[in-house]
Specification:
Blueprint: E1 30-32, E2 43-51, H1 60-78, E3 82-91, H2 92-96, H3 101-107, H4 119-137, H5 144-151, H6 165-184, H7 203-208, E4 218-221, H8 235-239, E5 246-250, E6 258-263, H9 265-268, H10 272-278, H11 285-305, H12 326-331, E7 354-356
Parallel strand pairs: 2-3, 2-4, 4-6
Antiparallel strand pairs: 1-7, 5-6
Helix pairs in contact: 1-11, 4-6
Length: 359
């Protein structure tokens, strides 16, 4: 979905920047995933369904329909033939238990603890989050007005017109924290909080699964991913309150050295905030399949071609979903108006996927 045109800056920066791809200090032990060789088609991709038993989940039939629909969309939009493996199912507990304890210690500090102990802690966190978000937004300096127009109507205070990326980045941080706080008051069907101490909702750990022994190319999960970080802040996920519906990131053992997750919690569940973000009260089964397949296809554009995000082009499957309004996003697709190479964000290799060799 996810979350910007995700382009690598010419000069390395001090920390990772966006929800798909990390841009870091030149002195760190970082490298770049090469553009995949897709000359031999069909590209065969392995798939897993990671399930949190606390939440509603897709049926086996729905998962197969999502994969079939995505296969067609990838051919239509990118002219690439793909095939998917049989879907393996594993619990979220089994998936997360293999994250190395040393890596957890290293990356724990990248997570924002939004239970601020006092106003000074909140102020400091807000400033650090704004810096990370602003750094990401400098990637979009050539498309600044389109990004502002994309975000403005969906801010917590939309009547306060933003004129530049500095003001917008502060407004987005406030929007993220306010909407993320909503989830802290929500309970699941088991009566326990949706966001609990397990950490399964933290985006940092989904970004870390590629450093485990996991070898899947694609993961579909029913887990809500909603969190705040001190790096990788981006426009569209901030608008939603830290909800990251999909990510393409590094994977040590996957066939293309990257893996995708998409999360379908917003498709399957109906809450007051989700209704607002979706502009729909609920989704029927066909909508769930079509929108999930489009989300997966979007991520496959990142994985297979390293495409970016053409903000402002509503016809483009690579443009991030506004809020979680999948119906409007999906209904506006037009492959002819968003061809490969049609703008800099749709150039093959528009983004870099970086990883830490020491992890």
């Amino acid at each position: 979905d996810v979350q910007s045109n995700d382009q690598q800056l010419n000069q390395p920066l001090s920390k990772p920047l966006n929800k798909h791809f990390e841009i870091v200090d030149a002195s760190a032990d970082w490298s770049t995933v090469p553009l995949p060789d897709i000359s031999r088609q069909p590209i065969k991709l392995s798939v897993a369904s990671i399930v949190n038993s606390r939440f509603k989940k897709l049926t086996d039939s729905q998962i197969q329909q999502i994969l079939q629909r995505s296969q067609s969309l990838v051919k239509q939009y990118f002219n690439i033939d793909i095939e998917f493996s049989e879907v393996e199912v594993l619990s979220i507990e089994d998936a997360f238990k293999n994250i190395d304890t040393a890596l957890v210690k290293q990356r724990q500090k990248e997570i924002v603890d939004t239970d601020f102990i006092d106003d000074e802690a909140k102020r400091k966190a807000r400033e650090e989050m704004q810096e990370a978000l602003y750094a990401t937004m400098t990637n979009y300096s050539g498309n600044e007005q389109s990004v502002i127009e994309y975000a403005q109507p969906y801010l917590i205070n939309p009547e306060v017109k933003q004129k530049d990326f500095i003001g917008l980045s502060y407004a987005l941080v406030d929007t993220l924290l306010t909407r993320l706080n909503y989830w802290k008051s929500q309970t699941a069907a088991d009566g326990a909080p949706v966001l609990n101490d397990s950490g399964y909702h933290e985006w940092v750990w989904w970004d870390s699964l590629g450093y485990t022994d996991m070898s899947y190319d694609i993961v579909i999960t029913n887990q809500l991913v909603a969190s705040a970080e001190y790096y990788a802040m981006d426009v569209h996920s901030s608008m939603r309150g830290g909800i990251t519906a999909g990510t393409t990131t590094y994977s040590k053992h996957a066939s293309l050295n990257s893996y995708i997750y998409i999360m379908v919690y917003p498709m399957l569940n109906d809450t007051k905030l989700l209704e607002k973000l979706r502009s729909d009260k609920t989704y029927d089964s066909d909508q769930i399949v079509n929108y999930s397949a489009a989300l997966l296809t979007h991520e496959l554009g990142h994985m297979l071609l390293h495409l970016g995000h053409p903000f402002g082009n509503k016809a483009c499957i690579m443009s991030p979903t506004v809020m979680l309004n999948y119906r409007d996003w999906y209904d506006n697709f037009n492959a002819d108006l968003c061809a490969i190479g049609s703008n800099e964000d749709m150039e093959v290799g528009a983004i870099d996927i970086n990883y830490n060799r020491s992890w």
